[in-house]
Design goal:
It is built from twelve helices and ten strands. It is of the alpha/beta class. InterPro entries: AAA+_ATPase (IPR003593), ABC_transporter-like_ATP-bd (IPR003439), P-loop_NTPase (IPR027417), Type_1_exporter (IPR039421).
């Protein structure tokens, strides 16, 4: 082929006719087509992703506005809690009278609670046991006024619970459950939110973390208690692979990263937040509803022991499947089955009765014994 600089236009046309440049033009056309195809694909994917992101954003906004239109069916009262007429220094007195409850939209033929009556004195430590679906957690939701009963009465300190302001009752109640939430803040702030007025009190937060069992894993983090769980910062890099000494690589590495913690560590943080809340002095009722499902037996035992140690001035109710180590502290054990209270009493009296509680306890003890072997 002649040198391209020495070829005239006529010679170009002649070479094309002869087909000498044909393969090169074909290759160039294929490369251009492939590049155009990639660009088109990227553009379509970008539009699709943007549309999906926009759709999610609109749905989020719709849910926010829809929330404001939800009518609260729980009746709020006008009486303050604690009331001036009755002291609650020992804790909150709780009573259910012939309570029946059905969850909204429930398709089951049986109620979650059926004609439940029980009385819990101020300062008592109560353990509620029973099989899954027996109504244990539902009792907690009724007592903490997350729901009102379908029928029957709920009394707090001798007065119908509906007479009290719900905000006052919630300030006087602490709930530890599996339903927990972590905020896009530092670990210190996540714990400190338990007592907002002292969210900057490092010593109080440190003590709460220790009681909640979170200190051990927090100490292993690079930034300790100042670690952010979910920093609101999107990070990406382009053409920095294999360039650790590049200034932008160093800047990228210095940015906050999302910290992934286990379910058990989350539960320890939530427990620490509850211990922080106890510092307010307002908590008179503590409901502990399976908050340690992701903890090992030793961690759960230590958490429950720490809760028992700070029970002064509080009524405590525990709901847990591993209840054997709690029964010796319990003033009252309530055994549930199919939405009804089938037994109430102390560990000794219920074991002597050899009923539902004795069956559950023996199954648990047998399983523990077999595991230990």
């Amino acid at each position: 082929m002649k040198a391209m600089k020495e070829m005239t236009s006529d010679e170009y046309r002649e070479d094309i006719i002869r087909g000498e440049l044909g393969p090169y033009i074909l290759k160039a056309s294929i490369a251009i087509l492939q590049q155009s195809s990639n660009t088109l694909r990227y553009s379509i994917e970008n539009v699709s992703n943007s549309t999906e992101s926009f759709r999610k954003g609109v749905n989020t906004l719709n849910s926010i506005y829809a929330t404001s239109k939800i009518k609260n069916l729980i009746q709020d009262g006008s009486c303050s809690y604690p009331s001036a007429e009755r002291s609650c220094e020992s804790g909150m007195a709780l009573e259910l009278k012939n309570v029946t409850f059905e969850y909204p939209g429930n398709k089951s033929t049986s109620s979650a609670l059926r004609d439940v009556s029980l009385s819990i004195k101020p300062g008592q430590l109560v353990v509620i046991v029973g099989e899954n679906g027996s109504g244990k957690s539902t009792i907690i939701k009724i007592l903490t006024r997350l729901y009102d009963p379908t029928s029957g009465e709920v009394h707090i300190d001798g007065m119908p619970s509906s007479h009290y302001r719900m905000a006052d009752l919630h300030h006087s109640t602490a709930v530890l459950s599996q339903d927990n939430h972590m905020y896009p803040l530092s670990l210190s702030e996540n714990i400190g939110l338990g007592y907002v007025g002292h969210v900057d009190d490092a010593s109080m937060i440190s003590r709460a973390a220790e009681l909640g069992g979170a200190s051990s894993f927090i100490s292993k983090l690079e930034k300790g208690i100042d670690t952010f769980l979910n920093p609101s910062l999107e990070q990406f890099a382009w053409n920095l692979q294999g360039k650790p000494d590049h200034p932008l690589s160093k800047e990228l590495n210095s940015l906050e990263k999302t910290v992934d913690i286990s379910g058990g560590e989350r539960q320890r943080l939530v427990a620490s937040r509850a211990f922080m809340r106890f510092n307010s002095g307002k908590v008179k009722f503590v409901a502990v509803d399976e908050p340690s499902s992701a903890l090992d037996a030793e961690g759960e035992l230590r958490l429950f022991q720490n809760l028992i140690d700070v029970r002064a001035g509080k009524t405590m109710i525990f709901v847990t499947h591993r209840f054997g180590h709690l029964t010796r502290y319990a003033d009252q054990i309530i055994c549930m089955k199919e939405g009804k209270v089938v037994e109430m009493g102390t560990h000794q009296s219920l074991m002597k009765a050899d009923g539902e509680y004795a069956k559950l306890y023996n199954i648990q003890a047998s399983a523990f014994s077999n595991t230990a072997q």
